[in-house]
Amino acid sequence: MHNLQELVNPGPGGTMLDRIAQLEAEEAQGTSVDQSERVVIVCNSLPLKMRHDPEGSEERGHSWHFEMDPDSIYAQTSVGIMERTSAEKVLWIGGLGSEVELFEQDAVAEDLHKNFSCVPVFLGAELKDKHYKGFCKGFLWPLMHYILPMSPQSAGRYDKVNWQGYLAANKR
Hints:
Elements: H1 4-8, H2 16-28, E1 38-45, E2 48-52, H3 57-60, E3 64-68, H4 73-84, E4 89-95, H5 102-116, E5 118-120, H6 125-144, H7 160-171
Parallel strand pairs: 1-4, 4-5
Antiparallel strand pairs: 2-3
């Protein structure tokens, strides 16, 4: 499982209504259904530290070691959310700090979901660059900080290629 659509709608060819009907049927049969309240945090990068670890690949099915990063600003936000809401769980959706090979992505995604409640979004270097550095930092950040794209303070202007990268990244 390495994209959000598979997490939200895991059935082949099913719809969200099919998934809801399946959950209602499981509940009616007395099957345990997780009804805890949760918060979904979508961020540029997951609140994890990662390092390449070829020795651990057999037990995990991939060559990466992950641990929560207590210094991550994203991780620190979850503490406040958990204290101030009735949410019992946080589900993180975001990118990783390093590129993960295609053949390892499913194992990494399963590991992160199971052990850290994280869903990684694998963008690739070029798309990540267009999305984050190009559109988010070059266009949205100045706009959200009162620097209009056409003003003299603005270093960048609207770029259609970066906009297309932003759209492509958000579709994943």
